[in-house]
Write a structure and sequence with these properties.
The complex is a heterodimer of chains A (484) and B (566).
Chain A (H helix, E strand, L loop, with lengths): L21 H21 L3 H19 L6 H18 L4 H7 L6 H7 L1 H26 L9 H24 L16 H23 L6 H27 L8 H6 L1 H30 L11 H29 L2 H5 L8 H23 L6 H29 L6 H6 L1 H29 L6 H7 L7 H19 L1
Helix pairs in contact in A: 1-2, 1-6, 2-6, 3-6, 3-8, 3-19, 7-8, 7-11, 9-11, 9-15, 9-19, 11-15, 12-14, 12-17, 14-17, 15-17, 15-19
Chain B lengths: L2 H16 L10 H17 L8 H10 L1 H16 L8 H6 L1 H29 L14 E6 L3 H14 L5 E7 L3 E3 L4 H5 L9 E3 H4 L3 E5 L1 E6 L4 E7 L6 E7 L2 E4 L3 E3 L5 H6 L6 H20 L3 H7 L1 E5 L3 H16 L13 E5 L11 H13 L2 E4 L4 E5 L2 E4 L3 E3 L2 E4 L3 E3 L16 E2 L12 E3 L4 E2 L13 H20 L12 E7 L2 E8 L2 E10 H14 L3 H16 L12
Parallel strand pairs in B: 1-2, 1-9, 2-5, 9-20, 11-12, 11-17, 12-13, 19-21
Antiparallel strand pairs in B: 3-4, 6-7, 7-8, 10-18, 14-15, 15-16, 22-23, 23-24
Helix pairs in contact in B: 1-2, 1-6, 3-6, 4-6, 7-15, 11-12
Classes of the chains: A mainly alpha (484), B alpha/beta (566).
Chain lengths: 484, 566
Amino acid sequence: MPEAQSRISPQFGSSFSRPVWIEPLLGFALGTSGGLLQGMVLRTSLLSGGLLGAAFGLAFGLFFARRATSPGAGLIWGLGSSFLLWILTAGGFFHLAGVARYSAMMFQDAQGHFSELVAYVLCLGMPVGVGLGIRGGLRSSRPGKKFAWGRAIVAGGFAGTLGGLIFGNWVSSGNYYPLLVGFGELSSRRVTISLHFAVALLIGVTFGLLFQRDVRGYGSCMGWGLGFGIFWWFFGPLTLLRLAAGLPLDWSAEQGTAVFGSLVGHILYGLILGVAYATIDKIWVRLFIQSDPLNREIESPGLHVLRSLGWGAVAGLIGGLASLPVMIATGVLPKVAGVDTSFVGFRGLVIHLSVSTLIGMTYGMLFRNETTSPGSSIAWGWVFGLIWWYLGPMTLMPLLLTGVCDWSADAASALLPSLLGHLIYGAVTALIFFLFDHRYTRSLLLDPRTSPRELRRLRPVGTPAPALWLFALSLGVLLPILLG
Amino acid sequence: MNPIFRRCSIGILSGAAASTVLTVTPHYALWNLILSVGIGAAYSAGLRPTRRAYVDNLLGGASLGVPLWGLVSVIVIPLLSGQMPAWSAEQMRQNFPALVSWVIFGAFLGITNQALQDGAEYFFGPEPAPKVPEVSVTKRIVILGGGFAGMRTAECLEEGLRGDRSTSLTLVNETNALLFTPMLAEVAGSSLEPSHISTPLRSTLRRTEFIRGVVEAVDLEKRLVILRHDAGANGASGRREVPYDQLVFALGSISNYLGMMNIEKFAFNFKSLLDAIRIRNHVIEMFERADLESDPALRSSLLTFVIAGGGFAGVELAGALNDFAHGILADYPRIHPDEVNIVLVHSRDRVLPELSESLARYAQEKMQLRGVSFRLNTRIVDAHSGVVLLGEGEIRTETIVWTAGTTPSPLLKSLPLEKDKRGALVVDDTLAVPRRAGLWALGDCAAVTDAATGHPCPPTAQFALREAEVLASNILSQLEGRPTRRFHFDSLGALCVVGHQTACAELSIPFNRSRSLRFSGLFAWLLWRGIYLAKLPGWERKIRVLMDWTIELFFPRDIVQTIDVK
C-alpha cells in the first residue's frame, strides 16, 4: 500500500539518464550466484537453483532496482520479494494453482520447504537486495539526505549496546542468550556475555548503516527492528553462529523449531534496538545537525504529544472493544484477570480495556507520524498488533503471572488464537487514530503555515515500507504456525 | 468523476480480477467474489493513486494477505457457516493453503489495481487533485479589538467556518497579543513575568488575518475600516483600508479621567502590560530614591502610593503593591516598614461594590491589617507634581495609579450610532447594532442587555466571553439565513485577591442564581489561582505562570528595574 504525495518521486528522475542494463545484469549475476550457493547448501540441483536465482535476480534488477536506493532499502525489498517467491514456489501456490484445489498436505509440504525459505531469504533476497542497494546508493543522491557514516555507526552502536544491556540483564537471569543460540555451549559466563554484546553491537551498527535513511519515527523504527530481528534470526542462529561454531548448516523446520525461542528473542531485541536507535538518532540530529529555532513549527512538540496521547487512548479503547470478543473466546481474558478459569468477569474486562487504552497511547506516541492514509495506518496498526502479541501474551503476561516466560514453539502455538485478536486491535486502533488525526489535519491545512509540515509527514513513494509489512507481518505470523 | 467513486470502481474491478486466485475453493466462490470486490474497493479507496508504483502495490497488497486470511478464512467464514472460528493452532495449519491464496490474492490485487489506475489515467486523465479549489472571498468579517471579546469571537468564527474559504476573517488590534487582565496586578506586584500573561494572537488564531494597527475611522457608508499602522524601515505610519461585510466592535474601554487633565498627566494608567511594567519599575525607583533620601517629608512622599478607585482593579492592585512593597523591604534596610504607605481612595462608603457588603468589609479589614490605608467617601479632585488633592485634604505622593473609571473606546464617538450615557454602543439582544445591517458590538464598548432579565450586563471578561460565543453564532446564522439567538448569561460569581494568600469569593449557586456562596481566605485565594490559571489561554502560558508562582514560594520578589522610568 504505497503512499504518495507527488506523482513522480524526485529520486527516480535520475533513472532516465543511466544505462538500464546495469541493474538487471547485476541482479542476474548476484541471483545466479545466490541460486548456486543455495543449491550447494540444500544439496539440490545446482542448475535449477541457478536458474531460479537468475530469474529472481533479473526480475529484481528490472523491477525493484529503482526502489533499492540504499543497501538497507535493497535488503528490505529483497527480503519481501524473496518471501513472495517462496509463497509462489515452495509455499505451494503454483502447485495449488495447478491442481486447483486445496491439498491437506500443503502445510506439511511447506514445513518441508522451510529450508528453501531460509535459502531464498539469505541466498537470494539478501545478496541481490543489498548488492543492488549498494549500487543504488552510489548512484542516487537525495538532497538533504546525505548519508552520515559517523552518525550511523555511533547511533547504531550505542543503540545496539543499550539494547544488549537491557536485553542481557533480562535474559541472563535465566542463563539464556537468544542472540547466541546456535553457537553452542561457551566456556564461561564472561565469554558468553562478551559475545552477546559483540553480536548486539554488530546488529546495532548494521542497523544504523543500513536503515539511517529509511526510518522516520519511533514506530517505523520499531517495525524495521522487528523485520531486522527476524532477518537476523535467519542469518545468526540458523546460519552464521552455526558456521562460527563449526557446526553444519541446518535449515530444516526441526532446527527452526528447536531455536524458535531465539526468534522471539531476536524480535524483542529488534524492538528495543528500534526504539533505542530512533531515540539516539534524534538526539544526534538535534545536537549536531539541526537546531530548530529558525524553523519552529507553529505548534510545539508538547501539544502534539498530548494530542497523540489523547487520541491514542480513545483509539486503544475502541480497539480493545473490537478485539474483546476474540480475547474472550480465545481464553486470553481470564488470564489477564489473573484467574485460570473461563469466567471473565468485570475485573478481566476492566483490566483488558485499561491495558488497551494504555497501549493505544503508546501507539499514538510511536506511530503518530505514520498515519497519513487509511491504508498505511492499518498496515502499521497490524505491525503494532503483532509487536504487542510478542510483547504481551508471549513475554510480559507469563512473566507477570508466573515469573517465567516460555518462548517455545509450542507456547507460541497455544497463543496463536490471540494473535488474531491483537491484529484486529492494532488495525482498529490505527484506523480510529487516523480518523482523529485526519480531521484535525484538515482543519490545520486552512493555515498555510501548516501545509509544509504536513507534506513532510507523508512517506514518499519508493520507501521499502510495503516490503517490510510483507516480510515482518507475514513471517511474524507464519513462523509460529510453521514451526509449532 | 468523483475521485472516491473512480477509485472504488477501479477497486471493484481489480478485486473481481484478483478473486480468481481464490477460486481454488469453489464452494466459497460467491463469498470469495463478494469479499474480493469489497476488499478491492476498500484497498483502492484507502490509498492515494500513484503512477507506476507496481512493486509497491505488489508487496503492499501481498502484505494484506495474512491479516485477511486471519479475518476471513479463520474467523468470518467459519462463523458464517455456523461454526466456531478455526483459530486453534491445528486449525490454522489446516487452513495454510488459504493463507497462501490470500497472500497471492493481495499481490494480484495490488498489481491489477495499479494497472487499472494507470490505465484510467491514460484514458480518462489524472484523478482530480484533492486540493481545496480557489474560492473567491465573498464575505469579509472584520473584528476590531483583540481582547477577550474580540479574540473569542474570532475563535468561535474559525470553529464555525472551518473549511469555508469564501469567508475571510480579519482581526485588528493595537498590540499583537491578548492581555489576560485578571493577572495584571500580579505583574505590577512582580509576581509574574509580563509576557507570561499575554497570548500571541497570531499563534492562537489559525485562519484569521491579524493586523496590528490603530483604527482611525470607520466609514459606514463605504463599509471600510481605516487603519493606521507602523510601516517602513523608518517606522513612519502607514495607512490601510480594510473592507468589511460584517464588522464587530470589540474595542474595549480606556481609563476615564473625568476631565481632570492633571490627573491624566501625572497618574499611571492600569490597562495594559506596559502600564503594569511601568508601575512595578516606578515602585522600585521610589524605593531606590527613598533609600538615599534623608528628608523625612520627601521620603514619605516617595514611599506613599495612592490608588484611585476601589473596584476590583484598584483593590487587587493595592493588595499586590502592598505585598510587593513590604516584600522588598529586606533589600532596603534603611527603609522602615512604617514608612511605606499604600492608600486606596474610593468615592463610596465601601470598596468592591460588585461583591456583597460582608465580603467587601472583610477585604477592607484584611488589607488594613496588612497596612493598606483606605480613604472612603473621598474623591480625587486634582493632582500636581508630588501631591494629590482630595475633596478634603491632600496626600503627598509621587505615585498615583488611576483605576477609578473607564469609558468605551473614543473611536465610538465619531460613529453616527446610538450610544448610551456612558458612550457605549447600544445593541439589541442579539448583539447587533440596531438598524445597521452587518454591525455588531460586544464587551466593554457595548451596552449589552441580558435578554432574560433586562438588566445591563457588566463589562467583565466573564460576560465578554459568553457574548462572543453568541455573537459569532449570530453572525454565522445571519450569513446562512438562520434565525439568531438572544444573549442571556447568569454570572458564575466573582473572585478578588486582596493580598498574599487571601481572596474573597462569591460564587453563584447553580439552579438558584439569586443566592450565592461566599467565602474568603486561603481557599478562596487558591480557587482564584486555579480558576484563572485554567482560563489563561494556552498550555505554555499556564506552565509559565505556574512556574512563576512556584518560584515565588521559594525566592523573594525580583527588584530588577527593567525599564528606565526617569
